[in-house]
Here is the input.
Amino acid sequence: MSDEMLNEEGNVQRTKKFMYVNRKAPYGTVYALESLEVVLIGAAFEQDVSVAFIDDGVYQLTKGQNTTDIGMKNFSPTYAALGDYEVTKIYVEKESLEKRGLTVDDLQHLVWEDEDEDYAEKDSIKVVSAEELGQIFADQDIMLNF
Amino acid sequence: MKYGIMINEGPYQHQAADTAFNFVQAALDAGHEIFRIFFYHDGVNNGTRLTTPPQDDRNVITRWSKLAEDKNIDMVICVAAAQRRGIVDEGEKDRNKKDADNIAPGFRISGLGQLIEAGIQADRLLVFGD
Here is the structure.
């Protein structure tokens, strides 16, 4: 991926770092679903994309979701497509998992294929502490919170 | 400074639209530029001209329309969020075979790419919402 792109005026522009922060449970409000829609559209713009899951947002990635009884569409399988959209940096806050009695094994196993290493399958999810995540946030150009 | 603005909550239900409006006015008064205002989630409800608040209350919608006209601000409503919530322009009305449109003057309906572009083109992208 190039670090530069042309802006409206045809001038070279640096790729920006976009961070999407998901803080809410997958159902109950529409934020999680509409956040995922932004991430998927945003992936087409060849920017430096990261996604983070904190607070109840960690529930968005849990595996085995079944929404039959609440009459909502289960959109959780879509997270598995993020790797195909070259969204490969997915951060989950350690403290948020622990507070909810979850471990990374309760989450979907999200992967991406590294073109530079003969399409080797790599883990997308990185569990990080609140402090580490704070440093990652500080490094971003654009923060979109959902 | 060139600002992009994102508004994620509906009018009256939440203060986000009021705070964003005040920010935009203050930024323009201070000589800054507003690249675009993008309405998402229930924020799309800022763009229906059918809203009728009590007469002694502010009219959030006409306030946006006047701002767009006076200052030539690009105000974009997300099409996917709008379809869920029944915000319709003439094109959407025809495309989805509805019997009416309700978009307020100064707003246009377009895709999420407009938000990403605002992030790329503006110096800062400010998000108003919960």
Observations:
- Residues 16-29 of chain B form the longest helix (14 residues).
- Chain B touches chain A through 18 residues (CB under 8 Å).
- Chain B has a mean pLDDT of 97.
